[in-house]
Amino acid sequence: MGQTKREIERKYDVAAPHPALPDLTGVAGIANVVDKGVVDLDAVYWDTADQLLLADSITLRRRTGGDDAGWHLKLPVSLAEGVRDEVRAPLSDSVPRALSGLVRSRVREAELVPVVRLLSARDLRHLVDDKGALLAELSIDRVRAERLTEGGGTAEWAEIEVELADDADPTLLDKVEKKLRKAGVERSTSTSKLGKAVAATAPKGRKAKKSGKKGEAFAGVDVPETAGDHVLAYLRAQRDALISLDPAVRRDLPDSVHQMRVATRRMRSAFRTYGKIVERTVTDPIGDELKWLAGELGVDRDQEVLTERLTARISALPRTLLLGPVRGRLRIWTAARRSGSRRRTVAVLDGKRYLALLESVDALLADPPLRKAAAAPPADALPKAVLKDYDRLAARIEHALALPPGGERDLAMHEARKAAKRARYAGEAATPALGRPAKRFARRAKDVQSVLGDHQDSVVAREALRNLAIQAHAAGETAFTWGLLYGQEEATAAERERELPEVWARASRPKLGRR
């Protein structure tokens, strides 16, 4: 994976190519403005023919000139705050694989081609503190855009960019902006040079493509009115989460695998819960593929959760109870189980099966197989579906609590956990339509899920601790600490079992409306 830099910047429109800048010394600790001269930049931006990257506010360019020549992929983090992650790769003639993989969920099998060339004369200044440390870079860019598709076209403009230095205080940008606005300089309406270039060079009579289509909540529905509107909005949100989390998983960002797995589960759960609204003969095959994807993602995630749990247990023990190479044994065990799992995850995301899944979800949402109940008011159709999931959960809780402690109860509580998760997701999907009652139901179902989840994590941890104790014993090490941790996990499981009836009582008998 290429080098990544968190970029926080703001752009400003200026009418003149050589605007007069206000005196910025004294603003937020700026002691001096250092003139760094003018540098010529030549950047070619790549996208699909129908601008799929631009539609998601992503830019991919090959740039020469300046001190950061190479390929740059900019992924939005917070467009409103001007925050993006810039992933860099060395210069080459074609798009580097490390970067093309990060946009694959957006472009699928579409070809990336040069779409716009930007020639910029960058007049650069460094904003520094009283010790000469860089706080931000301010540049005045005189830009010439050349459209490389659809018959060409050119445009020229000037703009100011202010980019925060690494580790600098983000409030600096607010204070600099206040000074610029007093001088008549206004924030740009475009978040990227590419977006501005595409709009300015669009052929006459053709409007530039608007960005953000995939993220629109209701795809053409101004306000969701029917039960079907709400369910489809929820499904679109999960589809968008899958696509946007793909590059984060490839970059191995914290919690990204977990969040992507949650999106697959939410979508699959919605297919099953709202089968009276969206035809299950169509959604079930997609649900099977979502289950497959969640399982593949779980290769990393389950091991990560288990390792964190065992590490926390070990860290909480007094040193006098850590007998033998406990931490080293855990590291060896974890490395052996995790070896190759990340490569496998990326291979799954690069595979045809995963792309086919994304295509099938897109096709479903483009032409949803809605049933008769989809046209009903949300207050009629959604409570019935949510309460059906509640009934399933209630039956499984009752069954688990009736069993004596042991393996059979552990299994029954695990099944109840899965039902609690589905009930929670059902309530979350219904919340925009049903409001506070559905939100309260989802929150209480989550509480039940948390208790059952910690119980299941304890079951898994005990099996791992047993294996670690066996390995330690075989290596001539004492298994005392592993046995101690095993006992702690047994106590945790018993605590959760005692806690469950009270938590379940609070979640019982929800009031959502019509059944």
Question: How would you characterize this protein structure?
Answer:
Helix content is 52%, strand content 18%. The protein has helices spanning 52-55, 97-100, 104-107, 171-182, 193-200, 227-250, 256-273, 280-316, 326-338, 341-350, 352-366, 378-402, 407-434, 436-474, 480-507; strands at 3-14, 32-47, 59-64, 70-78, 83-89, 113-128, 134-147, 154-164, 186-187. It has an eight-stranded antiparallel beta barrel with strand order 1-5-4-3-2-6-7-8. Helix 8 (280-316) packs antiparallel against helix 10. It is globular, with a radius of gyration of 28 Å. The protein has two domains: 3-200, Hypothetical Protein Pfu-838710-001, CATH 2.40.320.10; 227-507, CHAD domain. It has 515 residues and is α+β, with helices and mostly antiparallel strands. Strand 3 and strand 4 (70-78) form a beta hairpin.
Summary keywords:
9 strands, 515 residues, CHAD domain, alpha+beta, Hypothetical Protein Pfu-838710-001, 15 helices, 8-stranded antiparallel β-barrel, 2 domains, 52% helix, single chain
